[in-house]
Amino acid sequence: MTKVTTVNVNGLRAAAKKGYVEWLAAGDADVVCLQEVRAEPHQLPDAVREPDGRYAVWAPSEAKGRAGVALLTRAEPERVRVGFGAAEFAESGRYVEADLPGGLTVASLYLPSGEVGTERQDEKERFMAAFLPYLRELREKAAADGREVAVCGDWNIAHTEADLKNWRANRKNAGFLPEERDWLSRVFDPADGGYADVVRALHPDVGGPYSWWSYRGRAFDNDTGWRIDLVCTTEGLARRAVKAEVERAASHAERWSDHAPVSVTFGV
């Protein structure tokens, strides 16, 4: 079995003070993908920067205090790549991937969130336009090398109405725009991107399971959430998925991020 977990930590230094360290130490994931680290490695406590029993790969953003992704793996990576070849996003702290022993390539992704009518949405659209061709290239190269791929992280798009509680009120908002959802459909199209949404495949007929809840109001208590933290894999790996779960905190007070960890377990 191989277990992969992804979580947007919403600032790792803050999360480390609220339960992240204990959560990581108690977990059994073989790979942990982190997003929105918002810190450079030297700014992190030793126990966070170099957790026991794991190899850590950090990809901070050149914009201080923003973005940042990381991979924590039990096996030593054979190869690491930061960025996906687009010059604009080379040091944006939004993508890092590693080849692991046993034929698995795993990546941590923090896709821009966007905001309608602003430069942030333009940035998101440029990112998506550059990233889809790379996803195809990654899948094709992996197939040629006999490898499987898992791109995990905060994709910042709810794909269908089942992926957010209050979808009617969000039809004109970033994260649920028709063009964003169409782009994600292309990622999941076997004739285009060729990736599978593993959590949805294992939970086909439910709302959610949600992985992000706003800190505003009582969104968490009412489970008014979004499913935007995805584990997307090549088809061969998707067929080996046996379990998917969202580690929703027992209460609002016990949360150490506004996102919950999402885990998928794959059989041999």
Automatic annotation (TrEMBL):
Residues 6-259 form the Endonuclease/exonuclease/phosphatase domain. Keywords: Hydrolase, Magnesium, Manganese, Metal-binding. The active site is at Y110, D154, H259. SUPFAM superfamilies: DNase I-like. The record marks H259 as: Interaction with DNA substrate. Pfam families: Exo_endo_phos. Mg(2+) binds at N8, E36, D154, N156, D258, H259. Probably binds two magnesium or manganese ions per subunit. Its cofactor is Mg(2+); Mn(2+). GO terms for biological process: DNA repair. The record marks D229 as: Important for catalytic activity. InterPro entries: AP_endonuc_1, Endo/exonu/phosph_ase_sf, Endo/exonuclease/phosphatase, ExoIII-like. Its EC number is 3.1.11.2. One of its GO terms (molecular function) is metal ion binding. The record marks N156 as: Transition state stabilizer. Belongs to the DNA repair enzymes AP/ExoA family. This is Exodeoxyribonuclease III. It comes from Streptomyces boncukensis. The gene is xth.
